[in-house]
Design goal:
Blueprint lengths: L1 H4 L6 H34 L19 H32 L2 H8 L4 H11 L6 H13 L4 H13 L2 H11 L1 H24 L9 H4 L3 H4 L4 H34 L9 H13 L7 H10 L4 H10 L5 H6 L6 H25 L1
Helix pairs in contact: 2-3, 2-8, 3-6, 3-12, 5-7, 5-9, 6-7, 7-9, 8-9, 8-14, 9-17, 13-15, 13-17, 14-15, 15-17
């Protein structure tokens, strides 16, 4: 173990500063500056774009290769920069940050690491799939299951920019709804994931899944590029295939964007929202379009909670660092949280 740790940068402070600089510049370019401008659009127009599910139409297109390609292109244009940033940071964690530092801050079991994971996520504002490579890097650098899950979920669910967009577009009541239930969902799901993780997941992944960055030789930049390529090759192909399949199937997952309400539709939308993949803040125009067609508050509340939180592609992307049981616990926790949120929304809105 000590030999592997010595393969990290000889000057840990230098690696940390490089990582921090890349993260700040990357988030400023991909997230902070664009979202700042978008907030003024949301304020003045109460609109941030068409629903990615159906565009200007009232329903999603029928399942077809064309529907898959159209969704893949629209989705790719929205997220590609954030995905590249996620891969850069996910690989950078394993190359630049001393493993013992990550473990000391986020490696403990319990509430402290979970809470820190959520706090660290707030300025990142990534969608669930773009955050997945970073979550993988955190886990391979000995962050605990709970802290990684809380960071991963908090990125889309507690995204400050999305909450602002939601307030201007859907109303500030929905923002408060999302904040309160989002915090509860993140903490509960992270706790359950840690509680029901496989026994081997409590062991450092350095002992069961060593990173190539830890065993490779060469210069810092070469190792970072190598780790980036390995991470991209492992994650991106399966991710793209699943995005295309979900894009083709969106008419089945969301068969009618109309005036439907009640418990059955709350359950259906919670399940569909847990599986489907959207870009950051994509749930806001989706729900706005549904409201315009008469969708009830219950199913809308379920979608507001589940659409951003996880997706089938993001769950698959984390298959190397989380066991199937852990990922099922996460997915079930998100879906059940969405169902509960739908019932609450039906009662208060």
């Amino acid at each position: 173990m000590q030999a592997r740790l010595n393969d990290k940068p000889r000057l840990p402070f230098v690696g940390v500063m490089i990582f921090a600089l890349v993260a700040i510049v990357g988030f400023a370019y991909v997230k902070w500056v664009p979202y700042y401008a978008k907030a003024f659009v949301a304020q003045s127009h109460h609109f941030i774009g068409d629903s990615i599910l159906s565009g200007k139409a009232a329903a999603a297109p029928s399942a077809s290769w064309s529907a898959a390609a159209d969704y893949g292109i629209a989705y790719g244009k929205a997220i590609w920069q954030a995905l590249v940033l996620g891969l850069i940071l996910g690989s950078g964690i394993k190359v630049l940050l001393p493993t013992q530092w990550v473990s000391a801050v986020l490696g403990r079991l319990g509430f402290r690491s979970v809470a820190l994971g959520s706090l660290f996520a707030l300025p990142c504002m990534m969608c669930t799939c773009c955050a997945a490579p970073v979550a993988a890097g955190m886990r391979q650098s000995r962050a605990s299951v709970g802290s990684v899950v809380s960071w991963w979920l908090s990125n889309p669910v507690l995204n400050p920019a999305t909450l602002v967009f939601m307030g201007f577009v859907l109303g500030w009541g929905w923002t408060l709804f999302r904040m309160v239930l989002g915090i509860a969902m993140v903490l509960v799901v992270a706790h359950l994931a840690e509680r029901y993780a496989e026994p081997h997941e409590a062991v450092s992944l350095e002992q069961v899944l060593p990173s190539e960055a830890d065993t490779a030789t060469g210069g810092l930049l070469a190792r970072w590029v190598r780790e980036f390529m390995v991470l991209a090759i492992r994650l991106v192909p399966e991710y793209l295939v699943l995005v295309l399949l979900l894009g083709a199937a969106r008419a089945w997952l969301f068969p009618v964007l109309g005036a439907y309400d009640g418990i059955v539709w709350i359950v259906a939308m919670a399940l569909a929202g847990t599986l489907f993949v959207i870009p950051t803040a994509g749930e806001v125009p989706i729900v706005q379009a549904m409201f315009a067609l008469g969708l009830g508050a219950g199913p809308a509340g379920a979608l507001i909670m589940t659409l951003p939180a996880v997706s089938l592609p993001s769950l698959v992307m984390l298959g190397r660092v989380f066991s199937l049981r852990t990922r099922l616990v996460i997915a079930a926790g998100v879906a059940l949280s969405g169902m509960l949120a739908g019932l609450i929304a039906m009662a208060i809105f």
